[in-house]
Amino acid sequence: MSFDSQSWLARARALIGDAHVLSSDRGDDLSAYTRDWRNKFEGPALAVLRPANTEEVQAIVRLAAATGVAIVPQGGNTGLCGASVPGSTGPRAVVLQLGRLNRILDIDVENNTATVEAGCVLQTLQQQAAAVGRLFPLSLGAEGSCQIGGNIATNAGGVQVLRYGNTRDLVLGLEVVLPDGERLDLLRGLRKDNTGYDLKQLFIGAEGTLGIITAATVKLFAAPDARVVAFAGVASVAQAVQLLGAMRQRLGERFTAFELISGEAIALVRHYFPDTPAPLQGDWPWYVLMEAADGGDDAVLREAMQTALMACMEDGQLEDVALAGNVAQGQALWMLRENITHAQQMDGSNIKHDVSLPISRIPAFVAAMLPQLAQAFPGARPIVYGHLGDGNLHFNVSAPAAIEPGSWQLQTDAVNQVIHDAVAALHGSISAEHGIGQLKRHELPLYKSAIELDVMRRVKQALDPVGLMNPGKVL
């Protein structure tokens, strides 16, 4: 029996309302949903569906399962690996855009939890938690548009992992619509629940390939009253690692962020953002951006931070340091870090990497990788920065000045092999926080063991035997 797209769309409109089924045959522009924000991936979609609640998600999934239509779940479409848009090939697909499921269902101050729908924007949750004196610590560049469901589906990282962990560490419960349309209710705000398999973990980081996250219960924390930011110059990555250990020892849980930034990255920011002030007197090959926060007095925390930094300087663990005197100065220091991505976009073509390594092995990795890249790709410009506190580097490689952007992108696999082989040799990961999606799917078999991949496929087969959940992603 042939597939009648018009009949299918009519059934979908009957389920969730005519206005919430977008299709090109009616003149709707679907490109914002079928193309990722980096313009690297775009695939065809029969329609974009915008359900309003879990029941409508279930109804659409049941229709899709009965008719062999694949579903691509989508949040804010801010991912970096193409997981939230259709593949260029594969089964007939629709995009299930979850932005209308955007309610904060409950904030339990005594239990320090929030229950939210998947389409809730991360910044909205941050603000609502702050309004009742609580902190939701997940923080990343796209927080004004990314959605909680997407954060969970990709196990997002961000700048506060040092203290609070990845998204996985912040999730207590989930509501998931399974590939057959059944609703799996795991929305429990419990820190302890030792009753068999922890099923929610299957869906965190699965990039929508096992089911559709429709709601979550997440951890909240007491909002810090004091926050202090410092910016230091160091002579080497090894010195930065020593500084990390010393500052954690001296400040303990108050130490919340530790970002490593190469001198080349800072130079790039200051080139494209010439009004950026220089926090330090001289130039250093490496810089560190640090933050501490707690519930005490601001002056007390600043004194503790300053004392720790001065001790580290005396011990030879840093070369120079600037301590922000107020909130505005702290935000200006963070903008040095946040503007690296924008500066790279303005600079031209670059090949991005999101790798993680044991912190102790990062100095050796960087020391070996810089000359190796220079020899293999003369003129290539590594722009290195990332969350050193949790072992995550964004080891991006900008094109040599004389090479056309398109030509440099053709070198992606070759550059990836040099970097990812070195990461694997040091028992690291080729994806720390961005996921696999379409971008790294072909590389996963090179760096995952056969038994790991086999178990992953068994789980996929058990939950989605027909393969209609976000096909072409991860596996």
Which descriptors apply to this entry?
FAD-bd_PCMH-like_sf, eight-stranded antiparallel sheet, Alpha-Beta Plaits, FAD binding, alpha+beta, 17 helices, FAD-binding oxidoreductase, single chain, Uridine Diphospho-n-acetylenolpyruvylglucosamine Reductase, domain 3, five-stranded antiparallel sheet, flavoprotein, 475 residues, FAD-bd_oxidored_4_C, 36% helix
Tell me the total number of β-strands.
Answer: 19
> Percent helix among the residues?
25-40%
Tally of alpha and pi helices: 17
Uncertain regions: pLDDT < 50 for 5+ in a row?
Answer: none
The chain-level structural class is: alpha+beta
Q: How widely separated are the two ends?
A: 29 Å
What is the mean predicted local confidence, pLDDT? 95
The level 1 CATH classification of the domain at 226-346 is Alpha Beta
Characterization of the model:
The structure is a single chain. The model has no long low-confidence stretch (mean pLDDT 95). Helix 9 packs across helix 11, helix 10 crosses helix 12 and helix 13 packs antiparallel against helix 15. It contains 17 helices and 19 strands. The strands form 4 sheets. Strands 12, 13, 14, 15, 16, 17, 18 and 19 form an 8-stranded antiparallel beta sheet that branches. It has a 5-stranded antiparallel beta sheet with strand order 5-6-10-8-9. Among the domains are: 119 residues, Uridine Diphospho-n-acetylenolpyruvylglucosamine Reductase, domain 3 (2-Layer Sandwich), CATH 3.30.465.10; 121 residues, Alpha-Beta Plaits (2-Layer Sandwich), CATH 3.30.70.2190; 87 residues, Alpha-Beta Plaits (2-Layer Sandwich). It starts with a helix and ends in a 12-residue tail after the last helix. The chain has 475 residues and is of the alpha+beta class.
